[in-house]
Amino acid sequence: MKVNGIPTRTIRALDNGSAIEIIDQTLLPYRFEKRILSDWRDGVEAIETMRVRGAPLIGIAGAWSVVLAVKENPENGPLLAAAERIQCARPTAVNLVWAVQKMLTALLPREPSQRFDTAVKLAAQLTQEDVDTCRAIGDMGCSLIAERYQALRRPVNILTHCNAGWLATVDYGTALAPIYAAFERGTPLHVWVDETRPRNQGLLTAWELRQQGVPHTIIADNAGGQLMQKGDVDLVIVGADRITRRGDVANKIGTYLKALAAFDNDIPFFVAAPSSTIDWKLNDGKREIPIENRSAAEVLTVRGVDQTGHDASVQLAPPDEAAVNPAFDVTHNRFVSGIITERGIFAPTDLATRFQDQIANAGL
Length: 364
Ligand code: MRU
Hints:
- By secondary structure, the chain is an alpha/beta fold.
- It folds into two domains: 2-129, Up-down Bundle (Four Helix Bundle (Hemerythrin (Met), subunit A)), CATH 1.20.120.420; 144-362, 3-Layer(aba) Sandwich (Rossmann fold), CATH 3.40.50.
- 40% of the residues lie in helices and 19% in strands.
- It is built from 13 helices and 18 strands.
- The strands form five sheets. The protein has a seven-stranded mixed beta sheet, with helices on both faces. Strands 13-10-11-16 form a four-stranded mixed beta sheet, with helices on one face.
- Strand 3 and strand 4 (19-23) form a beta hairpin.
- Helix 2 runs antiparallel to helix 3 (76-87), helix 2 runs parallel beside helix 4 (94-107) and helix 5 (115-152) crosses helix 6.
- The protein starts with a strand and ends with a helix.
- The model has no long low-confidence stretch (mean pLDDT 97).
- The structure holds 5-S-methyl-1-O-phosphono-5-thio-D-ribulose (MRU).
- 5-S-methyl-1-O-phosphono-5-thio-D-ribulose binds next to helix 2 and strand 11.
């Protein structure tokens, strides 16, 4: 997508894979800055601190971190130790483990001396596949918005939670991809953007939409239900960090409450995600998906800029106040109208039938 009119991707390799360039998302929406990672430990730090974030993007950042680990030492011992550290950098989004395991499966049968070239080629391939997959999700999902417009004959109001736009992927996004595709095709629409405390990923969504000229409004996290009751929301589209075989969805904390409110108000609730977000080994999301707990400090403070435009952090409550900070929640498949994937839009319980080949390839 474009930043100030310049086509930009969230991650790219420099010097044939000896370093990676990312957008430091901890500075957005206030400052747009790139950052260079030249050691796999920088990759782990960037994922843990959410300089790169969003399930598909942390998968790709994980793959390039493996490239940096191979550059440092391609022998089995150090490579496996680095890969283990990389894939554990965040626990909920399955894309990270998926990408690191794909890299290891390709690398381990090769001689250490051949591993760097193989790693660069595969990481570049996964990066391009992410772009193609997100574009396909956009193409598949934009019909949902066009159909709503045909029925309503006024701009379609879509609510989204967190950031599942191009910043959360290599390009285009997941939940925002159908919105961008519909907007490009001329479907009148407007997006309600949940601010998404405590990390305020909604502000990234608003920044993205603004860059592309898509009409949108930021709302407090608790406003969605009231807007739905008033008839101001026609459709909900969110992303996902892990989807189980039966279609339960882990996504940013607060997604579950939006799904409940949408269900109560007969509003379609769609999840957009690449098939790399589906964990075929898991079934019951509430019991089986690991939920990341982040620091209490994220709840007790809020970050922004002061009047001079400098970074400012405000303490909302005493720093020793008790606070818990689960970063994701799970929505049961019964609240999900459909899952928008690169292959089409499917009922959650149809995923396993539609992706039988992937299940077989995974030996499950
Ligand atoms: O904690 P984050 O910012 O990495 O969480 C991101 C989300 O929950 C997104 O909605 C999800 O990863 C889908 S991203 C395409």
